[in-house]
Write a structure and sequence with these properties.
Layout (H helix, E strand, L loop, with lengths): L1 H11 L5 E2 L6 E2 L1 E4 L2 E4 L5 H18 L9 E2 L7 H11 L2 E2 L5 E2 L2 E2 L6 H4 L4
Parallel strand pairs: 5-6
Antiparallel strand pairs: 1-2, 3-4, 7-8
Helix pairs in contact: 1-2, 2-3
Protein name: Reverse transcriptase domain-containing protein
């Protein structure tokens, strides 16, 4: 359901797909199990769009987004003040890019072997 709402906002032009790496296609979201990562540009308009999407999802499904388990990660070139302003729109905390998801780094740099050497 969330994926369908996100794709509808993409078609409307309200949500922009972004490149998460040089060799990847542009995406607006990725899902794994019951988790979804949403990618968008760092504008107030897109952040308000994401907020609208999350509210619409909650109303449609009756499932609440767990804000305590949610976080935002910004590119290193985004000013701290803008990060804080955008995070306040969603009411979600900002994390550093070196946090983990399922025991692995969320952001993997050039060295894939070091990120996955324990597997």
């Amino acid at each position: 359901m969330l994926s369908k709402i996100l794709m509808a906002k993409e078609r409307e032009g309200a949500l922009t797909r972004v490149k998460v790496a040089h060799t990847t296609p542009k995406v607006s979201h990725l899902s794994f199990a019951d988790d979804t990562t949403i990618y968008c540009t760092t504008t107030k308009a897109e952040m308000r769009c994401v907020k609208e999407i999350l509210v619409k999802y909650e109303l449609a499904t009756g499932q609440l987004i767990n804000i305590d388990k949610s976080s935002m990660i910004f590119s290193q070139n985004i000013p701290t003040e803008l990060c804080e302003e955008l995070a306040s729109i969603l009411g979600i905390r900002v994390e550093q890019a070196f946090s983990n998801y399922l025991g692995r780094p969320e952001i993997i740099g050039q060295s894939k072997s070091s990120a996955f050497e324990q597997i």
